[in-house]
Amino acid sequence: MEFRFTLPRDIYVGHGAIKNLAHFKGCKRAFVTTGGHSMRRGGFLQKVEQVLKDNGMEVKILEGIQPDPSVESVYEGAAMMREFNPDLIVSIGGGSPVDATKAMWIFYEHPELKFEDVLEPFSIPALRTKARFVAISSTSGTATEVTSFSVITDYSKGIKYPLADFNITPDMAILDLDIPQTMPPKLVAHTGMDALTHATEAYVSKFHNGFTDPLAKQAVSDIFDSLVTSFEGDSAARDQMHISQCLAGMAFSNALLGITHSLAHKIGAIFHIPHGCANAILMPYVIQFNKKAALSRYADLARVAGLPGRTDAQLVISYEKAIGELNEAMNIPHSIKDYGVTEELYKEHRDSIAHNAVLDACTPENPREVDDELMGRILDCAYYGKPVTF
Q1: Neighbours of 339 (CB within 10 A)
Q2: Which of 237, 268, 278, 307 could form a disulfide with 302 if both were Cys (CB 3.0 to 4.6 A apart)?
Q3: pLDDT(1) > 90
């Protein structure tokens, strides 16, 4: 079997790690992006700006990138980049601003392209002829700072599209452990469950390999140890979760994902459920479906998480239940209906969500084959909170 394993060239981890931006020598103009106000409020955006200026760079800042960034916002950001002409791009924030900036980078370097041209996985042309890219993650979940993914929403179609290509893997990732200490509990819960989904799906993916497996298993073990205490505000657990989510990101960026993410992308765009929350709700149902094809793999994860079970089947049931218990401990609903999505709205979009989830870039690597009819049935179980028995 032949496979590729790609990570940023440098990953800096620690309290105050933003200072490592100074390692970029010879750059003249830095374009910095972020989301809402939290990075400025915490003083982290100012630290980024100061390190860059102290390194002799002119700095332009784009603030206010919205959650679930749109195609239009990506084009606008790329146009701003072309006007400023940076040779370094730095994004600080959660998954949304970093993902948006990865996509802006594509269209900055290749203005001739349209969004439709890069939807096919691994179809993005070579980058780095104009700028290099640094990602500084503020949340402990998406791991976009080390991944080859960017999720962008086409609101005209109501679809979240994962762009996937090793060309958009950042050149440098910075995990400044001061930043996740500022996360509110709900964000800790949602991003932490996103990380657990990444590790779980990477381990059972058709494309898992000997490099990704240890990363996924270590992430699962550490997340089970740390997530609830991180949610409760423990400082050391926050540090550990920020590292664990990065391990999960290294795994899934190279092994890819599965239909938990396929469905989460589609229900997130339609029902406006935060991505990590959607993954947390969906994951037990997807495991119930996938275990016919990946029982021993899920059992491995239950073992590293220290869960009880004499047989693989018992261990996988323990894993499903443990995910439900994590959700319960962090106030995440058991089903899509419990989240507050009305039955009328669900039925209106059910078939299109199932169909688009089958077409999602994360579906081909799922361990069990799925079609529109099966995807719809999984979705029904996740909506009504019924076990998947088929």
Answers
A1: 18
A2: 307
A3: no
